[in-house]
Specification:
Layout (H helix, E strand, L loop, with lengths): L1 E7 L3 H13 L3 E4 L2 E5 L2 H14 L6 E7 L1 H4 L16 H6 L2
Antiparallel strand pairs: 1-3, 1-4, 2-3
Length: 96
């Protein structure tokens, strides 16, 4: 299932670790603090638990949005859809 991970993390070191972890799950960066990719339910649960361990729940936020492909096709964007330097061809293909 497609998953969006969006975060606002105060500390640089923690933010970098979460970004690296997202990449480790095969997610693609679509903006500086937003990732998109395909994950199963177990991976999603594991990612959420690992984010809870890393982040400060009083200062930071991490959102994990599972999305079926039909709903993803309904996504509408205004302006520049993603940072072309950050996004891979696989993600670009999802937006076409």
């Amino acid at each position: 299932m497609l998953v969006w991970v969006v975060y606002d993390i105060v500390e640089n070191r923690i933010r970098s670790r979460v970004a690296k972890m997202c990449k480790g799950y095969g997610l693609y960066r679509v903006q500086k603090s937003a990732f998109l990719g395909d994950m199963n339910r177990n991976q999603i649960d594991e990612l959420v638990l690992r984010c809870k361990e890393l982040t400060n729940e009083e200062k930071d936020s991490v959102y994990v949005f599972p999305m079926c492909e039909d709903d993803f096709k309904k996504v509408r964007m205004v302006g520049i859809p993603f940072d072309k330097d950050l996004v891979s061809d696989e993600v670009k293909a999802l937006f076409v």
